[in-house]
Hints:
single chain, 2 domains, six-stranded parallel sheet, three-stranded antiparallel sheet, 9 helices, 14 strands
Amino acid sequence: MKNALNPRKAAIVGCGFVGSASAFALMQSGLFSEMVLLDADRAKAEGEALDISHGLPFAKPMQIYAGDYNDIADAAIVIVTAGAGQKPGETRLDLVKKNVGIFKAIIPQIAACNRDCILLVVANPVDVLTYAAAKLSGFPENRVFGSGTLLDSARLKYLLGEHLNVDSRSVHAFIIGEHGDSEIAAWSSANISGIPLYRFCEQRDHCDHKAETQRIAEEVKNSAYEIIQRKKATYYGIAMSVRRICEAVLRDEKSILPVSSVQHGAFGIEDVALSLPVIVGKNGVEASVPISLDDDEVTKLRKSAELLKGVIKESVG
């Protein structure tokens, strides 16, 4: 028997920095009328729910409360942020064994209470955990996906906007592959409102393309490390990414977003979760989007996939 889902209800599993920031961003969005927060520390979830609720007089009416797995039975979207945090000097992939173990406890409980929701994975390493969540839940793969390189792509757009002195919303460019050290900036398909990136750069008197693209790509890749070194965690940018994904799903926008999903054949890549542009709507990942890559980008993407496959084989099985 299917659950009668409430299309305006979200559940967040994990109330650390990312979970609580995501709850705050979603409260401000007006997308949901009900949101339940779950955490291994029930008092932490209660405190976050109470604190965020005190902002409701400045936002839209909403019910926000702490709960348990039974309370997610009718949630349209379940957002999983639970997991060990990334420490200074630690890569996202260093987290894998700890967080796969946490997912083996969490995901079956979600699936036992709600088999019809969209399952959005945000915890890191997001690609490995997205693959684990798909296998552990038994959900159709279109309804299990991760935040992937959406934030990385936003960082790329921001830096390109700063470099070219244009609105970052006019920048169309993707980071693909792993959300991590093997990610790839898809420069060959990047454009500024339809104008190829390099042509636009030259119009703005930026001609040292190789050096500048390498610098920007490195800044994007190292952004999380820079933030963690300074403030111990990253959470505002990913919270806005969660909000953006929820908008696409709840409004059935058919938006093209680079989220992490299990691959079956794109660029010869099989049985691994990583990010490529897809159409996101009410059914989750609804279709892949052909992206033009040059030979070097395809080679790097396949290497990223093989790296992730090795980690998945070792940690997930």
